[in-house]
Amino acid sequence: MVFRxxxxxxxxxxxxxxxxxxxxxxxxxxxxxxVDGTNPNNRISYAQxxxxxxxLAAGFAANGIRHGDVIALFSPNTVAYPIVFHAASMAGxxxxxxxxxxxxxxxxxQLRDSQAKLxxxxxxxxxxxxxxxxxxxxxxxxVCDAADGYRSITDVASTAAHDVAAPIDPAQDTVxxxxxxxxxxxxxxxxxxxxxxxxxxxxxxxxxxLGEDERIVAVLPLFHIYGMTATMNHPLRQGAxxxxxxxxxxxxxxxxxAEHRIARAFIAPPIVLALAKHPAVDSYDLSALHxxxxxxxxxxxxxxxxxGRRIGCRVVQGYGMTELSPSTHLVPDNDSNPxxxxxxxxxxxxxxxxxxxxxxxxxxxxxxxxxWIRGPQVMKGYFGxxxxxxxxxxxxxxxxxxxxxxxxxxxxxxxxxxAKELIKYKGYQVAPAELEAVLLGHPxxxxxxxxxVLDGDGNEVxxxxxxxxxxxxxxxTVMSYVAGAVAPHxxxxxxxxxxxxxxxxxxxxxxKELRQWNAPRHxxxxxxxxxx
Length: 532
Description:
The chain contains 16 helices and 29 strands. The chain is α/β, with parallel strands linked by helices. Among the domains are: about 25-30 and about 45-165, Rossmann fold; about 420-530, ANL, C-terminal domain (GMP Synthetase, Chain A, domain 3, 2-Layer Sandwich), CATH 3.30.300. The strands form 8 sheets. Strands 1-19-20-22-23 form a 5-stranded antiparallel beta sheet. A 4-stranded mixed beta sheet has the order 3-2-12-11, sandwiched between helices. Helix 2 (about 45-60) packs across helix 3 and helix 10 (about 270-275) packs across helix 11. It is globular, with a radius of gyration of 23 Å.
């Protein structure tokens, strides 16, 4: 059956994203738009933001950037990031945002695949940017700060702020192309149009009511669609002040929350974990914080409750993916007591289905199935990957997320796990996220991840990679703890202690890396119990 959003459909302006986000910027004058969280004296007003975007867009055009060209943005979060992004949009270009942690080889692959013409980065990243650009289609490297031998965005910007008359078709033109693995392992360019981004902001605006007096901390990476939308475009559209941090450092993050009286924080599960368990939290006044929204990866409901109790605010989840611009489910601001573990309701102008992975049959209320989504936020497709696009989006416009979920009678949705990550133990399905939630409840465990591995009999069994707070913690203790909390087929059968769980910048567990670690040379380190 088709589930529909309980919220009224929204009108979607036929407007380029830079016009939508910056429509009121000039009129807001000296109101702060962007503040450097590491240096509060480095700030940009709304009037300055508007002028800087227009000047840089004119500079891009004067330097040969044309409609449809691709500009790669390889940078940590800075106050210049939104300027480059929206200037490229105004010039009619496509921005391919690059993971700030990429190696030169990974960067080069994205530059080649996206056919980038220009690379914008920072001086500290030149050691990776230069060799990557040499083996790509890039004509020039610009820096956002300053570096000998390289032009800066200030050098390129026009001396006069004026509009660039780029022929933009919001419904068809790709404005941003982040890279995502989707439901497969190879990163692909996700083509998101101006309309995709504008639609998703319009769809979520009535559910998340940001005001001009709010301050938002941008600690999520802006190269990721979640950070880009929730902590850059949406707050700037609403006239809020964005306090920018280059990366997550728990003390720096807590300093900003307290000093700027942050009322609402958009974060990922690893930061929720820090709020729940890091000893420094108790030293800060976080009384202004009323809502924490976690997304990008599954959040254990017990962990959410523990963090909420500790910091005295509501901790809720949302759901989406890069291919969905990104939001499909949110807990509305006016829902003060959402059900345990929900990711919220379908956002406006969105349809959802739950489909049995094996049979292809539709599932109903309180039945598990793969989440399918249809709405104006569905991507245009994967760049240069027609077959992959067709595998992801069917002929009726439904995007197949690869996530298993359910919906209750009140329209509250829950994500059970990734379809591809389910462990099949002797015919029984085991959800890694469920076991990870149990493991995080142990006082001597600070982080954990679970994958399926083969045992000596060829059975797929759950293996836990554990970051322990106490070196005296033993594998048998971990396995016994989990065995006491789950059904027999869900027991952890192997444990390996590691220093840190590999995660993407958005907070998702990199299970592919864990599978690579699970090589024969690691076997001797793993403590194994019989798979009975």
